[in-house]
Write a structure and sequence with these properties.
Elements (H helix, E strand, L loop, with lengths): L1 E4 L3 H4 L20 E4 L17 H30 L3 H29 L12 E3 L7 E4 L23 H23 L3 H18 L2 H43 L7 H27 L8 H26 L3 H21 L8 H17 L10 H24 L5 H29 L81 E7 L8 H4 L1 H13 L5 E5 L10 E4 L1
Parallel strand pairs: 5-6
Antiparallel strand pairs: 1-7, 2-4, 2-5, 3-4
Main location: membrane
Organism: Loxodonta africana
Keywords: Cell membrane, Membrane, Transmembrane, Transmembrane helix
Length: 577
């Protein structure tokens, strides 16, 4: 349901939803967006937005290096198995490389198709305007994916001259080239590389452009970073995790190896898993305005934490699988079922539909086979402690079963047991270092915020401003007349007005700071709670709508999610289904 205010106050101030902050993007069939352009003379909220720095660029380049090293070592190992005539290991290694890559490329290309395809359906008025007494138009849209440009103060929103035939021809040629390029990139299994490079380009553009374009490119960089981090998380646990267990079990089973390719592949897979988890958490925190960003020191310590815990876990799996192959498969399936049921029981809220949520929970169940992954809001200390206690017991049991029926010398067996125990202890040590010294505070630096608010640039409290004009709904009678009987009181008893109307401005201007409200994009959805992504990062239709509104707005808009349970005065609405 789209809502437009019928009074002057709603154009300048917030409504029963929470006020929002800096620009973001996302698109959704389950939500709608409305942009309220600020009146003339209203300054933009806050100062300059977040800036893309050199270390951000270095982080992306390191991510590319990890990606290429993981893929190159796996292909090198597969070629080595083929040359040695070990066709079974060659087939398994190549299967773990190609199948996850195909799944991820299809998902990435599907996202591209949706982002570059106009919505189907008959054309209709995507934008409606309504004059406001504060001097600014109210712009509302529903599932709009067409970028429209407006001039500040123009009477028609979204009106522009018809493009010439030459311009239309050039535009079609550019779109065709983009489609051909993206098709070729994804056929070569390089969709994630393209997204990394595109995120790097957008980040550099946000650093070099002016303030308004800087924030626009920074928004798009965050969206691209979120997409590639989700794709990498899916691919690493479908490819690198089983590859790691396979190669470790082969190394344990064979006392000596003629090639170092399996060792390099094992280390590259392990580093890819640890790096992807830390990168995912960093991008997620950077996208949430109600959370402090994760520092690069914290991200590096997270890499070490996951590196050692996953190494210990994978070593225990490899030791057990080298002797009990059938029972290892049963154990993995049982552990995955239990973890998936645990995640579903926690009622996660990551996706926009029920089936997407189920698929997401199944992927999280795969992640829980190897490491901890927070999917529920609130303090996770007890859940994390319980998880790692279970993992410690499982690692000890798997290693104990292998040790009792080992075929290798005693010295080598003791070394492997000590390596696994030491790796797990180091991982827990780095986890404690992260949570004790480098974990960002849960509260935003600007103070607590009401639900639904995104206010990185305006940390003031959410709610209607003190000088906003609020008009009563038509269904409620005014009670400002004296002599009315209210609540059983006698006539003549002075009754305070239900709705207070702001008096007119004084004749002599009073020195005061200008309001910094600016345009607001209202999203008719409750804001998802951390550690979930915001809806405008998950829902691509909402992302396209917000990007169109943001690009057409003369000032950087803020986002406003629907808040539930905030006691505020009711405003008058005109609703459209």
């Amino acid at each position: 349901m789209a809502a437009k205010s019928d009074g002057a106050a709603a154009a300048a101030g917030p409504e029963p939803e929470g006020v929002a902050g800096g620009p973001r993007g996302g698109a959704g069939g389950r939500g709608e967006a409305a942009a309220v352009a600020g009146g003339a003379g209203v300054t933009e909220a806050g100062g300059p937005g977040p800036r893309y720095e050199l270390r951000d660029c270095c982080w992306v380049l390191c991510a590319l290096l990890v990606f290429f090293s993981d893929g190159a070592t796996d292909l090198w190992l597969a070629a080595s198995y083929y040359i040695q005539g070990q066709r079974t290991y060659f087939g398994l290694t190549l299967l773990f490389v190609l199948l996850p890559s195909l799944v991820v490329q299809l998902l990435s290309f599907r996202w591209f198709v949706y982002d570059y395809t106009d919505p189907a359906g008959p054309p209709g008025p995507a934008v409606s305007t309504k004059d406001s007494s504060v001097g600014g138009p109210v712009i509302s849209t529903k599932d709009s994916a067409t970028a429209f440009r407006t001039k500040e103060g123009s009477p028609e929103v979204g009106s522009r001259p018809a493009p010439s035939s030459a311009h239309t021809y050039r535009r079609r040629c550019c779109r065709l080239c983009i489609w051909l390029l993206q098709t070729l990139v994804h056929l070569l299994q390089l969709g994630q590389v393209w997204r990394y490079l595109h995120a790097l380009y957008l980040g550099l553009q946000s650093r070099w452009r002016g303030e308004r374009l800087q924030r626009h490119f920074y928004w798009r960089m965050l969206f691209e970073s979120a997409d590639v981090s989700m794709l990498r998380l899916l691919e690493t646990f479908l490819r690198s995790a089983p590859q790691l267990v396979l190669q470790l079990s082969l190394i344990v089973h064979r006392s000596n190896s003629d090639s170092d390719s399996d060792i390099f592949s094992t280390f590259a897979s392990l580093l890819s898993l640890a790096w992807t988890l830390a990168s995912y958490q960093k991008v997620l925190r950077d996208s949430r305005d109600d959370k402090r960003p994760l520092s690069y020191k914290g991200a590096v310590v997270q890499v070490l934490w996951h590196l050692f815990t996953i190494a210990a876990r994978s070593l225990a799996f490899a030791l057990f699988a080298s002797v009990y192959k059938l029972y290892f498969g049963i154990f993995i399936v049982a552990h995955w079922c239990i973890m998936t049921f645990w995640v579903i029981q926690g009622e996660t809220d990551f996706c926009m539909s029920k089936w997407e949520e189920i698929i997401y929970n199944m992927v999280v169940g795969i992640i829980y086979i190897f490491c901890w992954f927070n999917v529920k809001e609130g303090r996770s200390r007890r859940r994390m402690t319980l998880y790692y206690c279970i993992v410690l017991l499982e690692n000890a049991a798997l290693t104990g079963f292998w040790y009792s029926s080992r075929n290798s010398p005693l010295d080598r067996s003791l070394i492997l047991v000590c390596v696994g125990a030491s790796s797990f202890a180091l991982g827990i040590f780095f986890m404690c270092v992260y949570y004790c010294l480098l974990h960002p505070q849960w509260a935003h630096a600007g103070g607590p915020q009401a639900p639904g608010c995104i206010c990185p640039e305006a940390p003031g409290p959410c709610g209607p401003p003190a000088d906003a004009v609020t008009s009563p709904p038509r269904s409620l009678p005014r009670t400002e007349r004296e002599g009315a009987t209210v609540g059983g009181e006698r006539p003549g008893t002075p009754t305070p007005p239900v709705f207070q109307v702001r008096p007119g401005l004084p004749a002599t201007p009073v020195a005061r700071t200008l309001r910094t409200e600016g345009p607001v994009i209202r999203i008719d959805l409750p804001r998802k709670k951390y550690p979930a992504w915001d809806a405008h990062f998950i829902d691509r239709r909402l992302r396209k709508t917000i990007l169109a509104l943001e690009y057409s707005s003369p000032a950087t808009p803020r986002l406003q999610y629907r808040s539930v349970g905030i006691s505020q005065e009711l405003l008058e609405y005109e609703t459209t289904v």
